[in-house]
Amino acid sequence: MIKKLSLVSLFTLLPASFYFAQTTVFAYLKDAEGKPVEKAEVDLKGSENDVTADKIGYFQFVDLQPGHYQIMITKPNFESKMMEFDVTNEKRKDLGTITLYSALTNADQGLAIIDSDGDDEDSNSGQASTVGLLQSSQDIFSRIAAFDLGFYWFRPRGIDGRFGETMLNGVSMIKSDNGNVDFGNWGGLNEITRYPEIASNHSPSEYAFGGNSSVVYKNTKASEYRKGFQFTQSLTNRNYRNRTSLRYSSGMSKKGWAFTVMGARRWAEEGIQEGTFYDAYGTYLGIEKKFSDKHTMTFNFIGAPYRRSTSSPSTQEVYDYRGVHYNSYWGYQDGEQRSERVRKGFQPIFQIQDFWKINKNSSLWTSVSYQFGKDKGSRLDWQNVQNPSPTYYRNLPSYYDSLDPNASVQNPDGSMTTAQDAYRTSLAAWQSGDANVTQLNWDRLYRRNMQQPAGNYYGQVGKRALYYLVNDVSDDKIWNAATHFIHNFNDTTKFLLNVSYQNYRSEQYREVNDLLGADFVLNRDPFAATNQPGKSGLFNEGEENVTKRVGDRMGYDYIFRRQEVKINPGIKFSTGAFDVFISAMAGYSSSSREGLFNHYLYKDSYGKGSDYNYWNYGLKGQAIYRLNGRNFIVYNGAYYSQAPYLEDLFINPRVNGSTAPNVKNMVVNANDLSYVVSTPFLKLRLTGYLVDTDNETTVQRFFADGIQLNNSDDQGDQTIVQSAFVTQVMTDVKKRNMGLELGVDVKVLPTLSVQALASLGQYTYKNDPTTYFASDATGTFSNGLSYLNLGKSYIRNYRQGGTPQQAFSLGFRYNNPKYWWVGANWNYFDENFLDPSALIRTESFVQNNNSGTPYSNLTESELRRVLEPTRLPSSFFLNANAGKSWVIGKYYVLISGTVNNILNNRKYITGGFEQTRNAKFPDFVQDTDREFTLFGPKYWYTQGRSYFVNLQFRF
Fold first, then answer.
1. HEC readout, 908-951
2. CATH number for domain 23-99, candidates 3.40.50.300, 2.60.40.1120, 2.40.30.30, 1.50.10.20
3. Which positions carry the signal peptide feature in this UniProt record (predicted)?
4. Whole-prediction pTM value?
5. What tens digit of pLDDT does each residue of 180-208 get?
6. For the segment 571-626, what is each residue's pLDDT rounded down to a tens digit?
């Protein structure tokens, strides 16, 4: 009877097995030396059927039904590996041998990078052998550049991050006003956003067309995080001192639900820069519902409120007195530190994603996202009094030294003295660090305001503020929607289609933060009486109340709007020894400004202006030629256009609706050719690249002396203005970025690797762009426009600023089989410049205002000397990291640490800008030739030696 039942059962189950095509999927895990990797955890996404590899590295999943699957393989001391595969009507599916590489870097940050390189020469898939080349985890140059050199503000190929793409759950995180990404919106959530997929530089991506500075794609699905708790505690001496986080993931339940929640906090009473503090939180909630093997939906909430202060750039004179950690933005109030530059905000993100496996060959992802909230940045302002900043040029020893020693000058307390005595007093105070001189004196500001006599201002009686704090506010509302469609024609051909839409609305205004003891502040231009006699000077003519109190808006108020649609089809295919990826793009954007204040100088300040519409097109291509299973030749090419961002389109949106003249779509033509080696013992990439950028528009705003501006009132009376806040616009800027990149990783022993990097670049301006000039001191010029054409700025062949153009790195990584590691590297930077100031390189700079001809004593050699590019000093650094991990039953413990800049090099300048206060040749030369120039370049220095210690506990 039992035999009959067994026979019946057998014939009953066989049809079920046939109809449901249940499949066993298996593979073997090995390290780079070919040795088995045991006890690695293999998580099947969307399921609780997680397994552990046995002693020979073998694992399997049984009874998998047809569909698309994803697994994540993790093991302490090894890099995590994510793989995707499809199950069809087969009984057994062999994933082959999967290689896990040792994780020797970035453990101190708790970071991991997706590694999807199958490293299998015998793979039947035409894409499997090269998919790893598309990920930065297998690109040794990109790894070193990001984690060892990136700490020192190195930008690969000199490309601005604004020309890249960062995506979170299918939608772009690029802000339409300036093209930047505010990473603080998910700050502190390292363990949630730790698995990005990266298409480096201008190589094509499956998720977006991108630019020429990489596409970074992050996806946060609740089921993809390790089930259980993870606690992390970090100690550092950087911008913050402490970080604490806790994450919990439920895993996928039998009913198809998964939850992940995380909270984090980073804080410091004072960071590495003097007078700075940090207080930021990060929260995440992920909910995932699996309706079937073909249909899943997710909800993600990310919120990261923060409040932190920032530090100032300074001239070399100030750093020589007070050191590289000096910060002029703070001072003592009642014995407590207080900063004028405090940034705070909360802009939460709500996202819904739908994942639909249409059939075995097609899938569709759809994302909808909404982000809103305010970002506020405070600053000190003043009316009809001198700049109270301790680093204002009239408050520094160099100013008194520039005067006649016997000249009579006023002390801060109002008493009179000679310039010689004032210089000695000021120098002694700066050298000794007298906080009454070297920092903001809040008590003095309060005292000056409270000593003001009460008066009647626009119908209001009280004390008007001479000094006050304001907030510059961005109130954003951003809608995003996107779809990502994939269709596999066969194993070697894949079609992709991405469609995205963004609706960006941002109201930007200034509000009163603190009146510092006064009753109100006037919403009026303090320079109007001298620059614009006879005019109202009101920032918002017609308003009822010109006197502003805390919370009131003043200065400016306007709305930016932008809508953008992009369509990005692509195709990937293999033919013979070639793997090819072609990606195209068509986009349309419409931008506008609506003014909410009626500025007294500009007729176009109030109301909604015109819509500025741009079409964009682009094409990217990648061709990989397989010399064999280990050696490849890779070509990446891109040609595309990009519409100007809002802040590049509008000259001075705070006060008018004027746009920069002759603004066009920026055009990028980028090409690179690489030779790549990928073996268990050697990884190498040698690349030559050439990136040309045309039609770029740049806008800068600063204070300038020596510019003669003629203002005419309604009666024709003229007023000459010599100093003013100005806007400088360059259009049709052409750049060329070219160079060589080499990254090498050699495994000299099974446990020891040597890594090296060389980056030789030359980043220059290719032309002399047209320069325009605007100023609120003038308003509309005699030509009826709000700007003047200053002609060409002669910057051809000047070096671009912002990053070292030469960089080298050499290091080693030792990985002990008992799960501890140590590594170190040497990094060197050279050929670092400041961007050239356009205004002082125009013909206006050398023209005498009286004669209209060049200055008589001007020679070409003298002009070349004065306008020589500002080159920053070269520097080298030593870094080291170490760590140890333990697996104790079901518990995992990791402790690691990193020390950067071990030798405490404080001479490295990470960035800065040339001041353009003296806009005429004679005054500029006189200032430049002083021992301490009054208006020399302002710099940011490296922070010196820093450390990061990390403790992680999973249970």
1. CEEEEECCCCECCHHHHHHHHCCCCCCCCCEEEECCCCEEEEEE
2. 2.60.40.1120
3. 1-21
4. 0.85
5. 899 889 988 988 887 678 888 999 999 99
6. 999 999 999 999 999 999 999 999 999 999 999 999 999 999 999 999 999 999 99
